[in-house]
Amino acid sequence: QVLLVESGGGLVQAGGSLRLSCVASGITASINDMGWYRQAPGKQRDLVANITLGGIENDAEFARGRFTISRDNRLNTLYLQMNDLKPEDTAVYYCVARSFRGYDYWGEGTAVTVSS
């Protein structure tokens, strides 16, 4: 079992920055890939970015150039640095960890609101 706890969300003005964190606990040795998804009100949950255990990243098109995903495997922590935020980035951001067996663990999410 893996528990994920996100933090770092909040209210920010357009053009501002936020850094999200996701701390994993439990059987963290079972974690392979990790990632961030987001879900805006009334919309589906979409991939923001993911990163392999070895550090290979995959970013959604809207995230490229503005968002940076990283992870510290010693601290079992995933990060998402978000710069130049836009109102359309308003959403709940979820951390996900995929085990080597392909099971996905999800956090409860952290809300990001970007005001214009």
Describe the secondary-structure layout.
Blueprint: E1 2-7, E2 10-13, E3 18-26, E4 31-39, E5 45-51, E6 57-59, E7 67-72, E8 77-82, E9 91-99, E10 104-106, E11 110-115
Order of helices and strands: EEEEEEEEEEE
What is the helical fraction, as a range of percent?
under 10%
Radius of gyration over all CA atoms, rounded? 13 Å
State the low-pLDDT regions, or none: none
Largest sheet: 7 strands, mixed
Which percent range describes the beta-strand content?
Answer: over 45%
Number of strands: 11
Q: How would you classify the helix and strand content by structural class? A: mainly beta
Keywords, separated by commas or semicolons:
116 residues, mainly beta, 7-stranded mixed β-sheet, 59% strand
Structure explained in plain terms:
With 116 residues, the protein is an all-beta fold. 0% of the residues lie in helices and 59% in strands. The chain has no helices and eleven strands. The chain has strands at 2-7, 10-13, 18-26, 31-39, 45-51, 57-59, 67-72, 77-82, 91-99, 104-106, 110-115. Strands 2, 4, 5, 6, 9, 10 and 11 form a seven-stranded mixed beta sheet that branches. The chain has a four-stranded antiparallel beta sheet with strand order 1-3-8-7, with no helix packed on it. The protein is globular and about 40 Å long. The model has no long low-confidence stretch (mean pLDDT 96).
Question: Summed up, what is this model?
Answer:
The protein is globular. It is mainly β.
